[in-house]
Amino acid sequence: xxxxIESSCDDSSIAITDIKxxxxxxxxxxxxxxxxxxxxxVVPELAARxxxxxxxxxxxxxxxxxxxxxxxxVTNAPGLSVTLMEGVTMxxxxxxxxxxxxxxxxxxxxxxxxxxxxxxxWLPVTVLLVSGGHTQIIEVxxxxxxxxxxxxxxxxxxxxxxxxxxxxGLGYPGGPVVQEYSQKGDKERFDFPIPLRQSPKIEFSYSxxxxxxxxxxxxxxxxxxxxxxxICASFQKxxxxxxxMKLKKYFKQTIPTKMAIVxxxxxxxxxxxxxxxxCKPYSIEILVADLKYCSDNAAMIGRIAVEQYKxxxxxxxxxxxxxxxxxxx
Length: 329
Ligand code: KG4
Ligand code: ZN
What we know:
By secondary structure, the chain is of the alpha/beta class. It folds into 2 domains: 2-117 and 293-310, ATPase, nucleotide binding domain (Nucleotidyltransferase, domain 5); 125-288, Nucleotidyltransferase, domain 5, CATH 3.30.420. The protein contains 10 helices and 10 strands. The chain has helices at 33-37, 44-62, 81-98, 107-113, 157-167, 174-182, 207-220, 225-253, 269-279, 298-310; strands spanning 2-6, 11-17, 24-31, 71-77, 102-106, 125-130, 135-142, 145-150, 258-262, 285-288. The strands form 2 sheets. Strands 3-2-1-4-5 form a 5-stranded mixed sheet, with helices on both faces. Strands 8-7-6-9-10 form a 5-stranded mixed sheet, with helices on both faces. Helix 5 crosses helix 6 (174-182), helix 5 runs parallel beside helix 7 (207-220) and helix 5 packs antiparallel against helix 8. The two termini are 25 Å apart. The structure holds 5'-O-[(R)-(carboxyoxy)(hydroxy)phosphoryl]adenosine (KG4) and zinc ion (ZN). Zinc ion is lined by residues 107, 111, 131, 263-264, 296.
């Protein structure tokens, strides 16, 4: 079995995965959403302090499996440096004391392997990764052959939901509440500009859209609840239209046989619907992770670690680096 640890942002999570069968033997996550809610976003130092409390609590429940462990896996990139540090420190201590190897996991690749939790992997696949930190189209050939086709040059898709929610006083995380408000709103009421509409490049940008929403809120002055519903619906429609437009551009150069959506924001039902509509005429098969594995979790870190274990992709405890930002996969 492999014990995996995830602490790249505001979720403390540990999983235990069976190497032979991919079965998830144990999985627990303690989310810090409530603690960060009042600030409208994640406060890194607070997040680190909460990991220090939560991770040992979860680990306590895993002690009975220690004798069966063959490796310790941990997210070391990308993420918040102070929170990554907590998971990596715990992983190093476990690796040393149990005398088993350490596996360093890239969090973004982990999200891709959320598709294969308790399953066999099926590749190649083109992935749309939409999370709080990233918006990317990635061509995945194999574990170590992944190519980023397009990324965001500023805010990410999920982050733009968080920022709109903050402007409307709806707390953190913004994604679920903006989706809920959208269901009661008129998505045609506000005509927000679709980002990078004229650009031929496959790249994303959400800061301009965020600003357009800010200006609209200022113009309206005192907001009624219906105004908030309509802003959310119009914003969500535009945020998703931007992804769809760039995917259409990508399909002009490559039509994948399989397309997957992963990351915390892949839970968005309007996005799922629009991607389904887009892919239908091309007969592209659409795949998504189980809703419970869309947001950050250690089960996806354990699943990819199984593949890394099979090819002896280990790292020394003095060699493992914390890498807050990554350019390549
Ligand atoms: O993958 P994740 O848990 O953390 C990162 O790796 O960033 O993603 C969290 C992000 C947050 O920005 C959250 O607002 C967004 O995913 N999110 C959503 C939805 N559920 C979560 N965004 C849009 N619609 C949703 N239903
Ligand atoms: Zn994530």
